[in-house]
Amino acid sequence: MEERLERKVEVMDKGMFGGDTLALGQYLGIFGSRSPIEPEKGLMLAVLKDAIACFQKYVHARHQKGNNLFREAEEWISEMDSDRLFSFGNICEILDLNPDYFRQRLINWKEEQTNGNKPYIQASRLEDASLLPESGKNIEGMLTSMQTEVLRGAAISLCNPTINGNNIRKQISSDYGMSAIDVDYNLRKAYARLKVRDLPSALYIAFRKGILNLNDIPSENLKSIVKGLEKLTPKEAGVLKAYKELALEYGRVREQSASKFLNISHDALRTRKTGIYEKFGVNNTAYFGIVLYVDEKRQSGT
């Protein structure tokens, strides 16, 4: 069983990464044990392999069904900051894979397959280079205009209660005429420069650094946030405090980390988050990035 799994992993890895030893090592770290795979992990692995199979099989599809399967796989792989159990990022982390590394290798693979047809990543990189400071160096905390616009677009989109983590990138793509891959590329670059790993942390830090401005946020949303903050229970306010500390310390706000920080169960945390969502009229943790900064300004009296 172990040898058969290792052979499957090696074939899959070489086909996708050209035999990259680091990627192969990551896979063998999962399957190298003689212990059987837990049923939950086995299901997650099946979901991951199916998505990758569709991503690779239909990358050049010219029929609608193939195009739809490829697009769905690409959007699933590209999605970040999702709390869903079967999201790409969550599955990778549970299987001890680095989701950022894995995602980028898939993007690189697609780029190689479509080389000469639509060099979308190269275009983004050229744009980045032209917008960097005169030194041309990737200065920590400085964003290109495109990265700033994508973050601003995310903040504005989150003010729409119909927008959630699953369609925010589609909204930004539509507003800015960018592909989903380009949106994700610029978000990842912004995350790297801000030293964060998710959207709520990126928005909070970008506001604190003056990269984003509350003038970009509709006034009715700002008023709603202030009113919502005033209605929070002490326990709900504690959740926001935990998220603020996690964003500043680790650049990432996750339910598991927040539960440990507050020493409460996941169910208790979700109940408190539901109360927060109701008070702000949203249903997206990424919105907390705006809320945290408004709360900070409110408490400082500025």
Describe the structure.
With 302 residues, the protein is mainly α. Helices cover 69% and strands 0% of the residues. The protein has 16 helices and no strands. Helix 8 (145-158) packs across helix 10 and helix 12 crosses helix 16.
Backbone CA Rg = 21 Å
Low-confidence segments, given as residue ranges, are: 1-36, 116-141
Number of helices: 16
Structural class: mainly alpha
Quick summary:
With 302 residues, this protein is mainly alpha-helical. The protein is built from 16 helices and no strands. 69% of the residues lie in helices and 0% in strands.
List strands and helices in order, with pairings.
Elements: H1 2-17, H2 21-31, H3 39-57, H4 64-78, H5 88-94, H6 99-113, H7 120-131, H8 145-158, H9 168-176, H10 180-194, H11 199-208, H12 219-231, H13 234-250, H14 255-262, H15 266-280, H16 288-300
Helix pairs in contact: 1-2, 3-4, 3-5, 8-9, 8-10, 8-11, 9-10, 10-11, 11-13, 11-16, 12-16, 13-14, 13-15, 14-15
Question: What descriptors fit this protein?
Answer:
single chain; 302 residues; mainly alpha; 16 helices; globular; disordered N terminus
